[in-house]
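Lab manual, section 2.4: Encoding a predicted structure.

Procedure: take the sequence of the chain (317 residues), apply the prediction step described in section 2.3, and record the output as C-alpha coordinates. A sample record is shown.
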Amino acid sequence: MWLRRILLLLSASIVSVSSVSQADDVGKVRDWTGSLGTSQFGVFSKDGSRLVYAIGNGACIVDVEDETKVIRLNGHSKSVFAARFSGDGKKVVTVGQDETIRAWNAESGKLTTEMNANTGDFGNVLLVAQNGNRVALSTGKDRMLRIVDLDKKTELQRIGLTDNEVVFRSVTVDGRLAMSNGITNVTKIWDTTSGREFSIDNGHHNYCGQFTHDGARAVLAGGFSWEIWDLRRKAKMLVGTVTGGHVYAVATTPKTNRLLTGLADGTIWIWDTNTGKEIFVLRGHNSPLQAVMISPDGRYAVSQDSEKAIILWRLPK
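Recorded output:
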Protein backbone atom coordinates (compact mmCIF):
# COMPACT_ATOMS: atom_id res chain seq x y z
CA MET A 1 0.00 0.00 0.00
CA TRP A 2 2.75 2.46 0.95
CA LEU A 3 4.61 1.70 -2.30
CA ARG A 4 1.47 2.38 -4.33
CA ARG A 5 0.96 5.73 -2.56
CA ILE A 6 4.55 6.77 -3.33
CA LEU A 7 4.13 5.81 -7.00
CA LEU A 8 0.89 7.78 -7.21
CA LEU A 9 2.56 10.85 -5.67
CA LEU A 10 5.48 10.62 -8.07
CA SER A 11 3.10 10.22 -11.01
CA ALA A 12 1.13 13.27 -9.94
CA SER A 13 4.33 15.32 -9.64
CA ILE A 14 5.48 14.34 -13.12
CA VAL A 15 2.12 15.22 -14.65
CA SER A 16 2.10 18.53 -12.80
CA VAL A 17 5.57 19.57 -14.00
CA SER A 18 4.84 18.43 -17.56
CA SER A 19 1.54 20.28 -17.72
CA VAL A 20 3.14 23.49 -16.47
CA SER A 21 5.93 23.18 -19.06
CA GLN A 22 3.45 22.58 -21.88
CA ALA A 23 1.06 25.27 -20.71
CA ASP A 24 3.82 27.87 -20.48
CA ASP A 25 5.44 26.46 -23.66
CA VAL A 26 8.82 27.19 -22.14
CA GLY A 27 12.12 25.59 -23.09
CA LYS A 28 13.99 24.29 -26.10
CA VAL A 29 12.41 25.00 -29.50
CA ARG A 30 15.07 23.51 -31.77
CA ASP A 31 18.84 23.16 -32.17
CA TRP A 32 21.50 23.23 -34.89
CA THR A 33 25.22 23.91 -35.38
CA GLY A 34 26.92 27.25 -36.10
CA SER A 35 28.48 30.32 -34.53
CA LEU A 36 26.73 33.31 -32.93
CA GLY A 37 29.67 35.53 -32.03
CA THR A 38 29.60 37.20 -28.62
CA SER A 39 27.88 40.61 -28.77
CA GLN A 40 24.20 40.48 -27.78
CA PHE A 41 23.09 43.12 -30.30
CA GLY A 42 21.97 42.20 -33.81
CA VAL A 43 21.64 38.42 -33.69
CA PHE A 44 17.85 38.83 -33.74
CA SER A 45 16.15 41.12 -36.25
CA LYS A 46 14.54 44.33 -35.00
CA ASP A 47 11.10 42.72 -34.68
CA GLY A 48 12.49 39.48 -33.19
CA SER A 49 11.00 37.31 -35.95
CA ARG A 50 14.34 36.16 -37.40
CA LEU A 51 17.88 35.47 -36.28
CA VAL A 52 21.22 35.17 -38.05
CA TYR A 53 24.23 32.96 -37.41
CA ALA A 54 27.52 32.10 -39.11
CA ILE A 55 28.17 28.65 -40.53
CA GLY A 56 31.06 27.51 -42.72
CA ASN A 57 31.91 30.07 -45.39
CA GLY A 58 28.61 31.89 -45.02
CA ALA A 59 25.68 32.73 -42.78
CA CYS A 60 22.00 31.85 -42.47
CA ILE A 61 18.96 33.96 -41.67
CA VAL A 62 16.26 31.77 -40.13
CA ASP A 63 12.66 32.40 -39.12
CA VAL A 64 12.10 31.93 -35.40
CA GLU A 65 8.65 30.37 -35.83
CA ASP A 66 9.20 28.45 -39.09
CA GLU A 67 12.51 26.61 -39.48
CA THR A 68 11.84 25.98 -43.19
CA LYS A 69 12.20 29.70 -43.95
CA VAL A 70 15.94 30.11 -44.48
CA ILE A 71 18.01 32.65 -46.43
CA ARG A 72 21.60 31.59 -47.06
CA LEU A 73 24.36 34.17 -47.46
CA ASN A 74 27.20 32.61 -49.44
CA GLY A 75 30.25 34.35 -50.88
CA HIS A 76 33.14 34.34 -48.42
CA SER A 77 36.09 32.20 -49.49
CA LYS A 78 36.91 31.16 -45.91
CA SER A 79 35.08 30.68 -42.60
CA VAL A 80 32.72 33.39 -41.37
CA PHE A 81 33.33 34.46 -37.77
CA ALA A 82 30.12 36.35 -37.05
CA ALA A 83 26.99 37.85 -38.63
CA ARG A 84 24.73 40.66 -37.40
CA PHE A 85 21.56 42.46 -38.47
CA SER A 86 21.67 46.21 -38.90
CA GLY A 87 19.62 48.20 -36.41
CA ASP A 88 16.73 48.57 -38.86
CA GLY A 89 16.84 44.85 -39.75
CA LYS A 90 17.25 45.51 -43.49
CA LYS A 91 20.86 44.37 -43.82
CA VAL A 92 23.11 41.64 -42.46
CA VAL A 93 26.86 42.19 -42.08
CA THR A 94 29.36 39.30 -42.00
CA VAL A 95 33.09 39.21 -41.29
CA GLY A 96 35.23 36.28 -42.40
CA GLN A 97 38.63 34.67 -42.27
CA ASP A 98 39.12 35.85 -45.85
CA GLU A 99 39.59 39.30 -44.25
CA THR A 100 36.52 40.86 -45.83
CA ILE A 101 33.43 42.53 -44.40
CA ARG A 102 30.30 41.99 -46.45
CA ALA A 103 26.82 43.51 -46.30
CA TRP A 104 23.77 41.62 -47.57
CA ASN A 105 20.16 42.47 -48.25
CA ALA A 106 18.29 40.71 -45.42
CA GLU A 107 15.23 40.00 -47.59
CA SER A 108 16.81 38.79 -50.83
CA GLY A 109 20.15 37.53 -49.50
CA LYS A 110 22.00 39.43 -52.23
CA LEU A 111 25.46 40.87 -51.58
CA THR A 112 25.38 44.68 -51.57
CA THR A 113 28.82 45.78 -50.28
CA GLU A 114 32.25 44.29 -49.71
CA MET A 115 35.43 45.78 -48.23
CA ASN A 116 38.78 44.55 -46.97
CA ALA A 117 38.73 44.13 -43.17
CA ASN A 118 42.36 43.14 -42.50
CA THR A 119 41.12 41.08 -39.56
CA GLY A 120 43.73 38.35 -39.72
CA ASP A 121 43.06 35.16 -37.77
CA PHE A 122 39.87 36.38 -36.11
CA GLY A 123 37.18 39.03 -36.43
CA ASN A 124 33.99 39.62 -34.46
CA VAL A 125 31.13 41.92 -35.42
CA LEU A 126 30.12 43.81 -32.27
CA LEU A 127 27.58 46.24 -33.72
CA VAL A 128 25.99 47.27 -37.02
CA ALA A 129 24.46 50.75 -37.07
CA GLN A 130 20.80 51.48 -37.70
CA ASN A 131 21.16 51.87 -41.49
CA GLY A 132 23.89 49.25 -41.81
CA ASN A 133 26.56 51.71 -42.98
CA ARG A 134 28.79 51.75 -39.91
CA VAL A 135 30.17 48.61 -38.34
CA ALA A 136 32.15 48.08 -35.13
CA LEU A 137 34.30 44.97 -35.13
CA SER A 138 37.16 43.56 -33.09
CA THR A 139 40.13 41.90 -34.77
CA GLY A 140 42.45 39.17 -33.57
CA LYS A 141 45.62 39.94 -35.51
CA ASP A 142 46.28 43.39 -34.07
CA ARG A 143 43.82 43.37 -31.13
CA MET A 144 41.95 46.38 -32.45
CA LEU A 145 38.45 47.75 -32.23
CA ARG A 146 37.69 49.15 -35.66
CA ILE A 147 34.84 51.42 -36.70
CA VAL A 148 34.32 51.29 -40.47
CA ASP A 149 32.01 52.97 -42.97
CA LEU A 150 30.84 50.32 -45.42
CA ASP A 151 29.38 52.77 -47.93
CA LYS A 152 32.64 54.70 -48.20
CA LYS A 153 34.75 51.58 -47.57
CA THR A 154 36.93 53.47 -45.11
CA GLU A 155 38.06 53.01 -41.52
CA LEU A 156 36.86 55.79 -39.22
CA GLN A 157 38.44 54.86 -35.90
CA ARG A 158 40.60 52.25 -34.26
CA ILE A 159 41.41 51.55 -30.61
CA GLY A 160 44.13 49.09 -29.67
CA LEU A 161 44.65 46.87 -26.64
CA THR A 162 48.03 46.08 -25.08
CA ASP A 163 47.02 43.32 -22.64
CA ASN A 164 46.96 39.88 -24.30
CA GLU A 165 44.38 38.61 -21.79
CA VAL A 166 41.79 41.27 -22.70
CA VAL A 167 39.35 41.52 -25.62
CA PHE A 168 36.62 43.90 -26.75
CA ARG A 169 33.24 42.55 -25.63
CA SER A 170 30.51 44.98 -26.58
CA VAL A 171 29.62 48.33 -28.16
CA THR A 172 26.58 50.40 -27.18
CA VAL A 173 23.65 50.55 -29.62
CA ASP A 174 24.47 54.18 -30.46
CA GLY A 175 28.12 53.22 -31.09
CA ARG A 176 29.34 55.74 -28.54
CA LEU A 177 30.99 53.39 -26.01
CA ALA A 178 32.98 50.16 -26.21
CA MET A 179 33.86 47.66 -23.48
CA SER A 180 36.99 45.56 -22.99
CA ASN A 181 37.83 43.07 -20.24
CA GLY A 182 39.16 39.57 -19.66
CA ILE A 183 41.49 37.69 -17.30
CA THR A 184 41.95 40.80 -15.18
CA ASN A 185 39.99 42.63 -12.50
CA VAL A 186 39.64 45.77 -14.63
CA THR A 187 36.96 46.48 -17.23
CA LYS A 188 37.61 49.49 -19.46
CA ILE A 189 34.87 51.62 -21.01
CA TRP A 190 36.06 53.44 -24.13
CA ASP A 191 34.75 56.54 -25.90
CA THR A 192 34.82 55.37 -29.54
CA THR A 193 35.21 58.94 -30.86
CA SER A 194 38.07 60.20 -28.69
CA GLY A 195 39.63 56.87 -27.69
CA ARG A 196 39.61 57.93 -24.03
CA GLU A 197 38.68 55.39 -21.38
CA PHE A 198 37.84 54.89 -17.72
CA SER A 199 38.17 51.76 -15.60
CA ILE A 200 35.92 49.69 -13.37
CA ASP A 201 37.70 47.40 -10.90
CA ASN A 202 35.25 44.85 -9.56
CA GLY A 203 37.85 42.67 -7.82
CA HIS A 204 37.66 39.55 -10.01
CA HIS A 205 38.26 38.30 -13.55
CA ASN A 206 35.54 39.03 -16.09
CA TYR A 207 34.88 36.33 -18.67
CA CYS A 208 32.16 38.34 -20.39
CA GLY A 209 30.39 41.68 -20.39
CA GLN A 210 27.61 43.51 -22.22
CA PHE A 211 26.09 46.98 -22.27
CA THR A 212 22.38 47.32 -21.56
CA HIS A 213 20.29 48.44 -24.53
CA ASP A 214 20.09 52.05 -23.29
CA GLY A 215 23.89 52.21 -22.90
CA ALA A 216 23.58 53.49 -19.33
CA ARG A 217 24.75 50.32 -17.56
CA ALA A 218 27.25 47.52 -17.96
CA VAL A 219 26.68 43.88 -17.01
CA LEU A 220 29.96 42.23 -15.96
CA ALA A 221 30.42 38.58 -15.04
CA GLY A 222 33.14 36.14 -14.11
CA GLY A 223 33.71 33.45 -11.55
CA PHE A 224 30.44 32.69 -9.79
CA SER A 225 28.77 36.09 -9.94
CA TRP A 226 27.40 38.83 -12.18
CA GLU A 227 27.07 42.55 -11.53
CA ILE A 228 25.22 45.52 -13.01
CA TRP A 229 27.12 48.83 -12.95
CA ASP A 230 25.82 52.37 -13.43
CA LEU A 231 28.30 53.90 -15.88
CA ARG A 232 27.62 57.54 -15.07
CA ARG A 233 28.16 57.06 -11.33
CA LYS A 234 30.67 54.21 -11.78
CA ALA A 235 28.74 52.42 -9.05
CA LYS A 236 27.66 48.81 -8.57
CA MET A 237 23.86 48.53 -8.61
CA LEU A 238 23.14 44.81 -8.26
CA VAL A 239 24.95 41.50 -7.72
CA GLY A 240 23.86 37.91 -8.36
CA THR A 241 25.58 34.66 -7.37
CA VAL A 242 25.47 31.39 -9.33
CA THR A 243 26.24 27.81 -8.33
CA GLY A 244 26.55 26.03 -11.68
CA GLY A 245 30.06 27.10 -12.63
CA HIS A 246 31.73 30.21 -14.01
CA VAL A 247 29.63 32.70 -15.96
CA TYR A 248 30.81 32.83 -19.59
CA ALA A 249 27.97 34.77 -21.25
CA VAL A 250 25.36 37.38 -20.31
CA ALA A 251 22.42 39.04 -22.09
CA THR A 252 19.76 41.65 -21.32
CA THR A 253 16.54 42.77 -22.98
CA PRO A 254 15.20 46.30 -23.52
CA LYS A 255 11.58 45.55 -22.62
CA THR A 256 11.70 43.36 -19.52
CA ASN A 257 13.58 43.09 -16.24
CA ARG A 258 15.31 39.87 -17.33
CA LEU A 259 18.98 38.96 -17.37
CA LEU A 260 20.38 35.72 -18.77
CA THR A 261 23.67 34.13 -17.72
CA GLY A 262 25.34 31.25 -19.59
CA LEU A 263 27.41 28.99 -17.35
CA ALA A 264 30.32 26.57 -17.61
CA ASP A 265 28.01 23.62 -16.85
CA GLY A 266 25.88 24.39 -19.93
CA THR A 267 22.90 25.84 -18.06
CA ILE A 268 21.29 29.24 -18.66
CA TRP A 269 19.96 31.07 -15.64
CA ILE A 270 17.19 33.66 -15.96
CA TRP A 271 17.25 36.46 -13.38
CA ASP A 272 14.95 39.23 -12.21
CA THR A 273 17.06 42.39 -12.31
CA ASN A 274 14.72 44.17 -9.90
CA THR A 275 15.46 41.70 -7.12
CA GLY A 276 18.65 39.92 -8.21
CA LYS A 277 16.89 36.57 -7.78
CA GLU A 278 16.96 33.56 -10.11
CA ILE A 279 13.55 32.77 -11.62
CA PHE A 280 14.22 29.94 -14.10
CA VAL A 281 16.97 27.63 -15.39
CA LEU A 282 17.23 26.31 -18.97
CA ARG A 283 19.03 22.99 -19.50
CA GLY A 284 20.07 21.43 -22.82
CA HIS A 285 23.72 22.16 -23.59
CA ASN A 286 26.43 19.59 -22.91
CA SER A 287 29.43 21.93 -22.80
CA PRO A 288 30.25 25.43 -21.49
CA LEU A 289 28.25 28.33 -22.90
CA GLN A 290 30.01 30.86 -25.13
CA ALA A 291 27.11 33.12 -26.09
CA VAL A 292 23.52 33.90 -25.18
CA MET A 293 21.15 36.52 -26.64
CA ILE A 294 17.53 37.55 -26.04
CA SER A 295 15.08 38.62 -28.76
CA PRO A 296 14.00 42.30 -28.61
CA ASP A 297 10.48 41.33 -27.48
CA GLY A 298 11.85 39.06 -24.73
CA ARG A 299 10.00 35.98 -26.02
CA TYR A 300 13.00 33.97 -27.22
CA ALA A 301 16.66 33.40 -26.45
CA VAL A 302 19.41 31.77 -28.47
CA SER A 303 22.61 30.27 -27.10
CA GLN A 304 25.80 28.63 -28.31
CA ASP A 305 28.22 26.35 -26.48
CA SER A 306 31.89 25.50 -26.97
CA GLU A 307 30.99 22.63 -29.34
CA LYS A 308 29.15 25.08 -31.66
CA ALA A 309 25.74 23.70 -30.69
CA ILE A 310 23.08 26.43 -30.97
CA ILE A 311 19.73 26.19 -29.19
CA LEU A 312 16.67 28.40 -29.67
CA TRP A 313 14.62 28.74 -26.46
CA ARG A 314 11.15 29.98 -25.68
CA LEU A 315 11.35 32.01 -22.47
CA PRO A 316 8.87 32.11 -19.58
CA LYS A 317 6.56 35.10 -19.47
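Check your result against the sample. Residues 57 and 76 are 5 Å apart (CA to CA).
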